[in-house]
Amino acid sequence: GENVEQHPSTLSVQEGDSAVIKCTYSDSASNYFPWYKQELGKRPQLIIDIRSNVGEKKDQRIAVTLNKTAKHFSLHITETQPEDSAVYFCAAKVPGGGADGLTFGKGTHLIIQP
Amino acid sequence: KAGVTQTPRYLIKTRGQQVTLSCSPISGHRSVSWYQQTPGQGLQFLFEYFSETQRNKGNFPGRFSGRQFSNSRSEMNVSTLELGDSALYLCASNKVAGSYEQYFGPGTRLTVT
Hints:
The structure holds two protein chains of two kinds. By secondary structure, chain A is an all-beta fold. Chain A is built from no helices and eleven strands. In chain A, a hairpin with a 2-residue loop joins strand 6 and strand 7. By secondary structure, chain B is mostly beta strands. In chain B, strands 2, 4, 5, 6, 9, 10 and 11 form a seven-stranded mixed beta sheet that branches. Chains A and B meet through strand 4, strand 5 and strand 10 of A and strand 5, strand 6 and strand 10 of B.
């Protein structure tokens, strides 16, 4: 089945700097790559996603890039703010049969230092 | 539009007991997926239901089961609870089975003692 690796597990950046979180996946059939943000004690929230026919997608301070050849995708957050502090999860989805749910990375705890 | 809701929010059970968790999807969403979240294993897919049928199942033992009703509400059952079943159980809904965007409920925190 699909396997998703996520790095780093913890990332500390100064407020205003950029943060980058990277994920790799194993199944070349995966075609959907969402990112979720989970604040302490809250539900995961979908913040951005990308499909395999697109290389990059941007939404204000957040962007995601996808390299299908290398099977990796990354989340970029610019001009980080205190409210960006949370755990971020990447995921990949293989269409079709089998376990058709999302396969998640282990998460990155992003800490924004004031 | 109301989001995904889950009940109860917290549960404490004893080893060997069974438990039933409930999930109501976003209005108009017909597919419900369940995930288990633990510090060690992260978020793991349990199963997906659409039109009252289980479409897919993750790598969990048969003690984990579920069902979906005609109004798209779903329940998840865990029998013969083990300490390792302590986790946050999240359900997510999407409009149709196998579609992409999934929206999570707040979860049920299950503690097994």
